[in-house]
Amino acid sequence: MIDGLDKCSGDQLQLIELITKLAEDTGNLKLCVASQPWSNFEDAFKSRPSLMLQDITAADIELYVTSKFSASEGFAGLQVRDPLGAKSPLESIPNKAEGVFLWVHLVVRSLLEGLTNGDGLRDLTKRLEELAPKLEDLYVHILENLDENYLDHASQLFQVVRACDDSPNLLRIALADSEDSEMAMRAPVKPMSSRAKSALCKNMKRKLLSRCRGLLDVSSTTLQYTYGDIAHDFRSEDEMDVAADAVAMADLEVQYLHRSGRDYIQNPSLWSWLRSANQEPFDPHLSPLKSHLLHLKGLPSDSLTTRVMGFHIWMAIKYAKRSFNIFPKKKLQGRREVARLLDEMDETATVLTSSHEERCGSIFVDRLVTLEGEHWSCFFISKVSDPSFLHVMAVGGVHQYLCTRLRHSNLNNKNNDNNTNRKESD
Fold first, then answer.
1. How many whole angstroms separate alpha carbon 371 and alpha carbon 377?
2. H/E element holding 254?
3. In angstroms, rounded to a whole number, what is the distance separating the alpha carbons of residues 99 and 131?
4. Which residues on neighbouring strands pair with residue 2, listed in sequence order?
5. How do beta strands 216-218 and 254-256 pair?
6. In the 8-state DSSP scheme, what is residue 300?
């Protein structure tokens, strides 16, 4: 399977010769190649079996468009007011789609939004005419029409998602997007309720749609949970329903609607424009660091495991290192904020492990162990006697933290020496 022949940046004639030679010289090889209908490819492969995508997907696109509009109350009203005119978008969209389902999805979403706002047939027709027939041009149209009031926030969301190594789940983005910049520091070490998780995720989903206009989307699939997985934590079916909803929502992935959208938006020139929309300097790595700290604070201490706790600690350390690297040495305020968040993570882990040990006699449910006066890091760092948080930072390679703390310690010692000398002089 070879897709996107038209995207080849090299000599297309050589590409055609290579494919033709492979097909002719190899008796047991079948090739399926795809491309935009460019004349050089059509001429080269005209004697081979071929098909046009739009010929195959036409019926499915018509079904998709009809089902989406039929479910809209706004469209139902339009059919009553103008039965004949209401058929127009149902016919126009499949004709303009050229077999590209993603284009259809984006266009239908835009028109349904117009219907929700009370648009009539004239407004819908104008909206449809303004939407470019090519996918990349449609991305341009969407970005150019981002609400100016949300552009700064949209830029931040795109940057945070890019800063994450994998597709982050909805709860992680919701915590990273906290409106209170000090939330990660001020939040208590307390299990997060299912209702709080559900509310955060639902609000974040609305934000993604309004700020990013569907370019960042939430996956439609998630892990399947049964009441048996969570029933032991709740007393009523209503509580279990809320918990199941929260778990399902939290694990939904935040991702680009399509890889072509990601590639287009992360193109250097467009990415530079998007970042320039930030009214103040923005560190996209600081937000995931705060998110993992809030996750850590919200863990239920009565079901604490080394795997989950360790995951959030090491992920926070990874983003802290990246955040440190953004700030040059002279930007002490930014470096101090990262160091302060790491100190809070140390304090949070200490509270979690000690509180669980007091109640259950063991720190983790998956390991029958106790601290016996040691720092919590002793379960994650082996072959080091009496480890501390500084050892965690050293093992994690967070040298900037060590330098910041050492500098702070030297300043304190110097101030103490000055105070001592002043007293002696007095």
1. 10
2. strand 254-256
3. 16
4. 33
5. antiparallel
6. -
Three-state DSSP class for 327? coil
How high is the pLDDT of residue 326? 79
Contact 338, 289 (CB under 8 A): yes
Cα–Cα distances in Å, from 67 out to 43, 75, 108, 112, 220? Answer: 39, 11, 11, 12, 18
Q: What is the mean pLDDT of each run of 10 residues along the chain (426 residues)?
A: 82 88 84 84 86 80 91 90 88 81 85 88 85 75 85 94 89 92 92 89 90 83 40 43 61 84 87 91 93 92 79 93 76 82 93 68 57 78 84 90 75 50 51
Q: What pLDDT shows up at residue 204?
A: 93
Residue 33 bridge partners (DSSP): 2
- CB neighbourhood size of 256 (10 A): 20
CA separation for the pair 411, 379 (Å, rounded): 32
Q: What is the pLDDT of residue 329?
A: 57
φ, ψ for residue 10, nearest 5 deg: -90, -155
Q: If we measure between CA atoms, which residue out of 218, 310, 258, 232 comes closest to residue 106?
A: 258
Q: For tokens 């509580």, what's the residue? A: 239
Q: What is the DSSP letter of 257?
A: S
